[in-house]
Amino acid sequence: MTGGIGWWGLPIAMLGGAIRVSTPFLFVSLGETVTERSGRINLGLEGILVFGAMSAYAVAVRTGSPWTGVAAAALSGALFGALHGWICKFPKVNDVAIGIALMLFGSGLAFFFGKPYIQPAAPHLPAMSLGAWSSIPQLRAALEVNALFPAGIAAAFVLRWALRDTRAGLALRVVGDSSEAARALGIDADRVRLAATCFGGAMAAVGGAYLSLYYPGSWNENISSGQGLMAVALVIFARWNPIGCVAASLLFGGAGALGPALQSVGITHGYYLFYAAPYVLTLGAMIASSAPGRAGAGAPAELSIGT
Length: 307
Description:
Blueprint (H helix, E strand, L loop, with lengths): L9 H28 L7 H19 L2 H23 L6 H20 L12 E3 L7 H6 L1 E3 L1 H18 L1 H11 L1 H6 L4 H25 L13 H11 L4 H23 L12 H13 L18
Antiparallel strand pairs: 1-2
């Protein structure tokens, strides 16, 4: 059965959906790339993402400004990252266990403080229309791109340059590969990892702000659907490369957009099975990354997941 925009519009619907769905993945994965390049893993991203979504929505409702909401989300994420980084600097503290604890803590706080904001409507983030050439409303809607998406693409290229060609990037890579070498060079590994974890938390929270202030554009307790945890797998799949995170995010976003795209061409039976595509892809990426000769390839030596 076909209808809607027709089969010819399916690739465009897939592209537009991939961009919309991939944006949170992009911000979370870029932040976690920086965190993991310092030799630390943060599994609390799911809680940070949810709390960022709630704080952005609440502040946007109160102030009437979605960008103020994004800034508030980034600040909240940085604070969660600082808490994670501060706890993990102590001897014999496990990054993974602390991350899981903070994931539950962040989600719980978001649900508690976010209850009054389930009903009120917040202003949405602006979008750029790339489909003005079309007279078909569905295509124009599919090709609306939120301003955060190009910002995320730009951030990926800036991070690649910073990691490769700046002194701060060199310090981050040295700390991620060897704490002893960092100390020999006079680099404070704990301080670098704290800064990297704060940055990763801020980026994850911005991804959450996108969810509540643009797509799907509301606050509720099931807003994340595990995207924070999937982003950790995405970083491994991208081999800790910011540009690889862009490609992997679009791939995961395309998988998430498959079900709605099939609906847009009139398929009404069985399309819901394709909503599981991102989770299947996550499992496949982890299996592929664990294959002999690929497991841990490109991982910072100090990262527990790569040892």
